[in-house]
Amino acid sequence: MASSDAHLNFPLLKLVSDARLTYGLRHQDFGRYRSHCVAKVHYLRKSVGLAQTAGKSRKYQRKDVVADKVASDKHLQIVLFNAERCWAYSQQLKESLDDPATPPTTRHLLIKRLGKAVSLSKDLVALAQSPELSSPLSASHAAQIHAYHLVMDGSLAFERGKHDVGLKSLSIAFEVLGKLASTAASATDEALANEMMDEVEPMLRFCAYKLGKDTAAGVAPIAKGVAEQEMATAVPEWDELSQRLAEEGKQGEKESVEITWRGETIPVRNAELVAAAVKVRDALATLKQDQATARKAEVAQGKQKEGKKEILGTKRMGTYDKALLVLGEAEAIASQLVEDNKIARSKGNTARFEASSRPLTLFHTYVQYHLLSIRIKRDLLVVSSASSKLAAREAKIRHVEQTYVARTETRNPAVADGKIRRLRAKAYPGLVKVFDTILLSLEAMRDKEVVEQDDELASTVEARIAFVRAQRCMYLSRGYALASSFPSSLSLNARAKLYARQSRSTVQSLSSAFDTPDDGGERDHDFIADQLPLDDASFDALDRELEADYDRISKEWFEATGGKVGENADEEDDVAAGVRDLSLADGKKEKKKAKVPFYDVAFNYVTAFDLDAMAIKAGLVAAPADAPATTAPAHAQVTEEAKAAVGTKEEEEPQPAKRGWGFGLFGRR
C-alpha cells in the first residue's frame, strides 16, 4: 500500500503517447499495438505479483488491482494498458468494417470491446479518487486520468450514434485538456494535452453538427458552454482540482516554444517536436548573438579597409557546426513526422491528421530554410576567410621579395609573381567548389514552397543566386587565366558581368516593388544578409574587380601572343601605322613589326576585304551608272597592249626548221 507521503508518478498522457507512437500507431497498425498491450500487461502483472500461477491443475483466480494494495505506479499501468488493449482491438475491428467479407457481428463486437475499455478507464478513475491514492497523485496526473476516461466515454457514445451523450463527455474532456495545457509545467506536457485535444476535436465537431449547433466559430465556445453545466457531475471537486493545477503550473518552469516566422505563428502541438524545437530556438539564438557581436565589432572598428574580410576562427566554426548538427537532427525528426502523417492520412484520412498536417509541414519548412541559410552563411565565411588568408600570404611574399631584391639587386622580381601564381592555382579551385555548394543550397531554398509563394523572398533568393554565380565565374576566370586559357577566361569574365547586372536589376526591381525596411524582425532571421548585402557598394566593388580582371587578363594575353605592354611598347600606335600604310601611293610599304591578332582583329577585317565590291555583288548597293563606260576603254587598251606584246614576242622567237616525213629521213633540207 502506498503511504500518504509517497508520490506516485503516473503521467498517463505521456505513457499512452509513447506506447502508441512506438508500437504501431505511427502507421495505424492497431494489431501490433494490441499485441504490445497484451505483453505489457503480462509483464506488469508478473512484476507486481498479480500473475496467474503456472500449471494446468491450477484454477483461475481473479486478481484485480485494488487501492489498498497499490504500492507503485505499475498497478495503475495494469489497468491503463488493459483499457488500451480493448481500445486497440475495437479500432482494429473498425478498420475491418470496410471489407465486404466482414461478418455482420463485427460492429457489435467493436461496441463491446470499446465498452470494456470505458469500464476499465472508469476503474482507473475510481482508484485515483480513493482516499489511499488521492494524496500521492498530483493534480495534473489526476486530471489526466479524468480526461482519459471522458475521451473513452465520448468515443463509445460517438460509435453508438448517441451524439448528445458524446457532446457532453467530449466537451468536458476538451475543457479539462485545455486546462492541462494552459497550466502545464513543461512544454512537453502542454504538447501532450494539445495532441489529445486534436484527437477529440473532430468527434466533438461532428456531434455538435448532428445536434444542429453552429460550428463556424469553432468548437471551443460550444465545449465551454456544455462544460459549465455538466462539469460538476462528470468531475467531482473540479474547482479544487483546477486550483491545484494552477498552483502546480506556477511552480513549474515552463519553456516557451512559440515560433514566429515571416509574420506567421507556427504551433508546436506534437510532443516529439518540443525538444527539437527548443534546441533549434537555442541554436538560432546563439547564432543571432554571434551575428550581433560581429556587427558591433565592425562598428567599433569603423569602415573596414578594402580587401579585408571577416575571418572564421576555430571557435566560430564550432558554433556554426553545432547549429548545423542541431538543425540537421530537427529536420530529420520533422521529415519523419511529416512522412508518417502522410501515411496515416492515406490509410484513415482522419480529421486529426488533416489538422496536424499544416503545422508539421510549416515547422519542417522553417527548419529546412534555416538549415540552408546557416549552411550558406558558413560557406560564405569560409570563402571570406580563405580570401583573407590568400591576400595576406600574397602581401607577405611581395614584401619579402621586394626586401631581398632591394638588398641584393641580383634576383629577378618575377620570382614573386611565380610564387603568387602557384599559390592562387591551389586556392581558386577550392573556392569554386565552395561556391558550387552555396549555389546548390540557394537553389534548394528557391524551390521551397514557402519561398515560391512569397514574391519578395523569391526575388531576394534569385538576386543572391545571380550574385554568387557572378563571383563563381570571376574566380573561374582567374583560374583559366592562370592556365593561359585567355579566351575562356575573358568569356567567363563577360558572363560574370552579365550575372552582376542581372542581380543588380533584380534588387532594383525588388526595392521599387516592395517597401522593405533595412532593420527589423525579418532581418534577424536572415543570416545571409551580412555576407551578401546586395547593396550598391557591393555591386560597385564587384564591378571594379571584374573590370580590373578584364584589363589584367587582356594585357597578359597581349604579352603571351608576342606584344609588349607598358614601357617596352612601341611609340607608334598600330592603327595609326595601318592608316599610314594605306595612304602610300606608290604601293611601297615600310617595314613594321608583326601585328598581334588580339588587337588587329577589327583592323584586319576592314583592310583585308573590299567591302564596297562585296556589297555590290551581294545586291545590297546598286552599281554606279558610269562604271561600264569608264572601265571598257581601259579594258580594251589593256587587250591591245597584250596583243602587241604577244606579237613582238613571236617575232623575236626563231622558227623551228621543217623536217621531212618518215622520222625526218626523207625531205630533210
From TrEMBL:
<keyword id="KW-0687">Ribonucleoprotein</keyword>
<keyword id="KW-0963">Cytoplasm</keyword>
<dbReference type="GO" id="GO:0006614">
    <property type="term" value="P:SRP-dependent cotranslational protein targeting to membrane"/>
</dbReference>
<dbReference type="GO" id="GO:0030942">
    <property type="term" value="F:endoplasmic reticulum signal peptide binding"/>
</dbReference>
<dbReference type="InterPro" id="IPR038253">
    <property type="entry name" value="SRP68_N_sf"/>
</dbReference>
<dbReference type="GO" id="GO:0005730">
    <property type="term" value="C:nucleolus"/>
</dbReference>
<dbReference type="InterPro" id="IPR026258">
    <property type="entry name" value="SRP68"/>
</dbReference>
<keyword id="KW-0539">Nucleus</keyword>
<dbReference type="GO" id="GO:0005047">
    <property type="term" value="F:signal recognition particle binding"/>
</dbReference>
<dbReference type="Pfam" id="PF16969">
    <property type="entry name" value="SRP68"/>
</dbReference>
<keyword id="KW-0694">RNA-binding</keyword>
<keyword id="KW-0733">Signal recognition particle</keyword>
<feature type="region of interest" description="Disordered">
    <location>
        <begin position="645"/>
        <end position="669"/>
    </location>
</feature>
<dbReference type="InterPro" id="IPR034652">
    <property type="entry name" value="SRP68-RBD"/>
</dbReference>
<comment type="similarity">
    <text>Belongs to the SRP68 family.</text>
</comment>
<dbReference type="GO" id="GO:0005786">
    <property type="term" value="C:signal recognition particle, endoplasmic reticulum targeting"/>
</dbReference>
<protein>
    <recommendedName>
        <fullName>Signal recognition particle subunit SRP68</fullName>
    </recommendedName>
</protein>
<dbReference type="GO" id="GO:0008312">
    <property type="term" value="F:7S RNA binding"/>
</dbReference>
